[in-house]
């Protein structure tokens, strides 16, 4: 499988590393920043360009879109129009309106399109999905996303926003929360309504970069889910006391299922843990599939999908549902004055 990458930032490095580790061909990297494109290409022994059209003119089995969030729409649209199968980093776009347009194009062109919600591909998450099926009628849920953020980072963000008010930045909810929203929809089904939402901002960061988001969701199945998401300078909390505190908890009439996810950049050290309390047999189960690199697993599944196999990767339609939910929560927060 030959893969070309658009974007040469930090996330592109994880993609390039995984492509090479799996023995696939990394053909070309494109980025408007010549230094970044050249450096990443040199690191992995491939061609580079500052012209995205040049990359899209090259034949490849897959084009990975790894540019900043604000540019996903334009770059992904161009890649689809050029006839490529696409892996687009999450979130698919930065608005439900753009996502709807992209979904329509993908459906028209009938090219494979995947979105990088790679946490769902981990075997532990697949086991957790089995656990969710055993809790009976779901009544409530909790999605918790807290990531460690040094206090010293905020003055840097404020300065960047002051210098460039239209800078392509996002806060905790989009950057850190979107993965868990994808898992919620994947595991618990659609959201019927956003009942309430509130966002908190550091001074000088409104309305671009939120520090904390809370939302209350009514699911289509009638259950209620609480979402809490934040960047805080707490580096000793969470299941592993490393500052990473991500949890999905789904509670039903027959059981309670929980999933603790891990630092995405440390697959060689940590694995998600899934747990189930099954009321019918009064037993608690726990599952840990071990160290699986989500990025590598994502590309393995893409290869299978390109060969016609059914896989668990996020589709454009599923990613659109996440973007719609993000928009709805932002809208609800505005109604309450944020």
CATH architectural category of the largest domain: 2-Layer Sandwich
| Strand and helix order | EHEHEHEHEHEHEHHEEEEEEEHH
Helical amount:
25-40%
The CATH class of the largest domain is Alpha Beta
Query: What summary fits the major beta sheet?
Result: 8 strands, mixed
Strand order of the largest sheet: 8-9-10-7-11-12-13-14
Rg (CA only): 20 Å
Please give the count of helices.
10
For the record, the count of structural domains works out to 2
CATH topology of the largest domain: Dihydrodipicolinate Reductase, domain 2
Total count of strands: 14
- How much of the sequence lies in strands comes to 25-35%
CATH superfamily of the largest domain: Dihydrodipicolinate Reductase, domain 2
User: Which structural class is indicated by helix and strand composition?
Assistant: alpha/beta
Question: Judging from the principal axes of the Cα atoms, what is the shape?
Answer: globular
On the 0 to 100 scale, the average pLDDT is 95
Unreliable stretches covering 5 or more consecutive residues: none
Terminus-to-terminus distance: 46 Å
Domain GFO/IDH/MocA-like oxidoreductase: 128-233
GO molecular function, one term: nucleotide binding
Protein name: Gfo/Idh/MocA family oxidoreductase
Domain Gfo/Idh/MocA-like oxidoreductase N-terminal: 2-117
């Amino acid at each position: 499988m030959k893969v070309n990458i658009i974007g040469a930032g930090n996330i592109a490095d994880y993609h390039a590393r995984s492509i090479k580790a799996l023995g696939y061909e990394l053909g070309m990297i494109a980025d408007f920043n010549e230094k970044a494109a050249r450096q990443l290409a040199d690191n992995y022994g491939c061609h580079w360009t500052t012209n995205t059209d040049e990359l899209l003119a090259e034949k490849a089995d897959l084009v990975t879109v790894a540019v900043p969030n604000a540019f996903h729409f334009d770059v992904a649209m161009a890649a689809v129009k050029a006839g490529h199968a696409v892996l687009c980093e999450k979130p698919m776009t930065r608005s439900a309106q753009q996502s709807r347009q992209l979904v329509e194009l993908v459906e028209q062109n009938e090219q494979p399109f995947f979105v990088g919600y790679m946490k769902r591909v981990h075997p532990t998450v697949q086991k957790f999905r089995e656990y969710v099926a055993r809790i009976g009628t779901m009544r409530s849920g909790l999605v918790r996303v807290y990531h460690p953020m040094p206090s010293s980072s905020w003055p840097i963000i404020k300065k960047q926003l002051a210098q460039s008010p239209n800078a392509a930045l996002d806060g905790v909810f989009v950057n850190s929360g979107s993965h868990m929203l994808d898992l919620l929809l994947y595991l618990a089904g659609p959201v019927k309504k956003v009942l309430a939402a509130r966002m908190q901002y550091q001074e000088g960061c409104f309305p671009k970069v939120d520090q904390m988001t809370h939302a209350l969701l009514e699911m289509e199945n009638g259950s209620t889910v609480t979402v809490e998401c934040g960047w805080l300078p707490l580096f000793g909390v969470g299941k592993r006391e490393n500052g990473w505190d991500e949890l999905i908890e789904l509670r039903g009439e027959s059981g309670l299922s929980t999933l603790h996810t891990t630092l995405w950049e440390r697959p060689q050290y940590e694995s998600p843990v899934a747990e189930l309390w099954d009321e019918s047999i009064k037993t608690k189960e726990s599952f840990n599939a071990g160290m699986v690199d989500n990025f590598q697993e994502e590309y393995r599944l893409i290869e299978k999908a390109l060969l016609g196999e059914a896989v668990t990767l996020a589709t454009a339609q599923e990613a659109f549902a996440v973007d719609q939910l993000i928009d709805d929560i932002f809208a609800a927060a505005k109604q309450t004055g944020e």
